[in-house]
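Hi all, posting the design record for the shared folder.

TITLE: backbone redesign
STEP: 1 of 1
STRUCTURE INPUT:
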């Protein structure tokens, strides 16, 4: 489950990716057209569970749309041992409760809760090793507070992920309005 991004945000992210990409050739870089704000990753699902998942997701509600500012870049776990290069998301207070509600809704269907704390972000790249990334870390530091745009979401989407040699591709399966009275 994920929130979608605007075309403007996707376009704004192309420039930093193009700038940082040559500094980490062994990294697996995300394509902006596939980026989204993950609320819950569920992995492979048996076809027999899909109808129950769809029905459960239709019950998830929030009192307001989620407001997001896409800003800054950083690393998980940190810049000393970078594994993931991310773009940050500053969001309205209802984003984390929305993700938690999705977790609670899916748990009775046998989908385990995420053990890590929910940290909204966009993955820009996955780094294969720690060596030689000093230039990347320094260049990313220059973008730590850069703004890439804003978005407002009143629905989340169930995506199917297909792994291909060129990278992951995503297809929306279904959309779920989560704001009472929103269309």
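Okay, here is what came back for every position:
SEQUENCE:
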């Amino acid at each position: 489950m994920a929130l979608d991004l605007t075309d403007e945000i996707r376009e704004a992210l192309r420039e930093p990716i193009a700038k940082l990409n040559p500094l980490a050739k062994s990294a697996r870089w995300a394509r902006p057209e596939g980026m989204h704000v993950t609320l819950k990753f569920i992995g492979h699902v048996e076809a027999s569970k899909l109808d129950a998942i769809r029905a459960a997701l239709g019950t998830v509600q929030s009192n307001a749309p989620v407001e997001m500012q896409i800003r800054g870049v950083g690393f998980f776990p940190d810049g000393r041992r970078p594994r993931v290069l991310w773009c940050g998301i500053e969001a309205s207070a209802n984003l984390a409760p929305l993700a938690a509600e999705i977790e609670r809704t899916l748990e009775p269907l046998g989908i385990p809760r995420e053990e890590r704390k929910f940290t909204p972000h966009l993955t820009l790249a996955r780094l294969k090793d720690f060596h030689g990334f000093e230039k990347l870390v320094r260049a990313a530091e220059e973008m730590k507070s850069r703004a890439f745009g804003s978005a407002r979401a009143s629905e989340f989407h169930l995506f199917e992920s297909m792994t291909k040699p060129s990278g992951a591709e995503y297809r929306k399966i279904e959309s779920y309005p989560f704001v009472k009275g929103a269309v």
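COMMENT: The radius of gyration is 17 Å.
Let me know if anyone wants the other runs.
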